Amino acid sequence: GADGGAGTGAVAVAHPNIALIKYWGKRDEHLVLPRTDSLSMTLDIFPTTTRVRLAPEAGRDVVVLGGRPAEGEALRRIVTFLDLVRHSARVPHRAVVESHNTVPTGAGLASSASGFAALAVAAARAYGLSLTATGLSRLARRGSGSASRSVFGGFAVWHAGRPGQDTKAADLGSYAEPVPVADLDPALVVAVVDAGPKAVSSRAAMRRTVDTSPLYEPWAASSRDDLTQMRAALLRGDLQVVGEIAERNALGMHATMLAARPAVRYLAPATLTVLDAVAQLRRDGVGAWATMDAGPNVKVLCRRLEADRVAAAVREAAAGGAVHIAGPGPGARLLPE
Ligand code: 2P0
């Protein structure tokens, strides 16, 4: 914006993040408050770039995703998010939103994390909301829970906040912040075994898991221990323990879904083939640990120096799927217009 704060347009970029301790389950759907803390690494690949321009004459928001007008649920979620920004800023104007993803959308590759982190940063500036990084993380959370973590680069923890508070206190208590880490030199090898959109949205799958899975509460309780142990391992630079905890936390999350009624299964045959390759790497003495999200794709945590070897093994197992090597990436930020 050229008018010193209450700008009329802004562009922001954000990267996806991959959770090593997963977010799976809300305690408040409207405020997007999670049941457990989660911890992630923001990537240096697959950025989303989003421009928001105020349109004072327009009667409705216009949203263009990857060059196509948004409709249905995608449009509704973005308009609801803009309504929240308008309410906070006390500015009624509609907006034109244009967003470009470099990652397949809805394939469990965290497109909603980079998407809503970039939208939060761009919309806050365009509407003249002056927010700290913590405030931007809370705002991004309202669009998509995992987006709260993509506001920050590197490793970030998203606090669930304390349950049983009033709405205002609960909202204030749930945000992400950077996690201190020792020298890890980590890489995440991303194996895209299927780039198609998921059959069940993570929002619906989470709800079903919390409501019907007998394994949900035990996993949530163990996830709290996983977080404590992982924070300690990150601080002392112990990538092996970080990897082991990440893999068990992810498999446990998928177990909660498999036990839901009816079951939610994101893991595909190709997923298991890649998991076999990761196990073989470990038998060969290479540190490699897998994590999977709301889709069949596999992300393999390893040492940067061994990432090429891991990527080669994963590429062979992924049977034609694309394989990308990511490192820790930057937090969401404004770009010059
Ligand atoms: C995560 N996932 O921690 C977990 C692990 C997928 C599996 O956050 O409903 O798009 O918008 O808050 O953040 C995917 O769910 O869900 C997700 P909403 P979101 O990364």
UniProtKB/TrEMBL annotation:
It is an enzyme of class 4 (lyase). The keyword Zinc does not apply. Pfam families: MDD_C (PF18376), MVD-like_N (PF22700). GO terms for biological process: isopentenyl diphosphate biosynthetic process, mevalonate pathway. Its EC number is 4.1.1.33. SUPFAM superfamilies: GHMP Kinase, C-terminal domain (SSF55060), Ribosomal protein S5 domain 2-like (SSF54211). GO terms for cellular component: cytosol. The keyword ATP-binding applies. Residues 14-168 form the Diphosphomevalonate decarboxylase-like N-terminal domain. GO terms for molecular function: ATP binding; diphosphomevalonate decarboxylase activity. Residues 189-317 form the Mvd1 C-terminal domain. Keywords: ATP-binding, Lipid biosynthesis, Lipid metabolism, Lyase, Nucleotide-binding. InterPro entries: GHMP_kinase_C_sf, Mev_decarb, Mev_diP_decarb, MVD-like_N, Mvd1_C, Ribosomal_Su5_D2-typ_SF, Ribsml_uS5_D2-typ_fold_subgr. Belongs to the diphosphomevalonate decarboxylase family. NCBIfam families: mevDPdecarb. This is diphosphomevalonate decarboxylase.
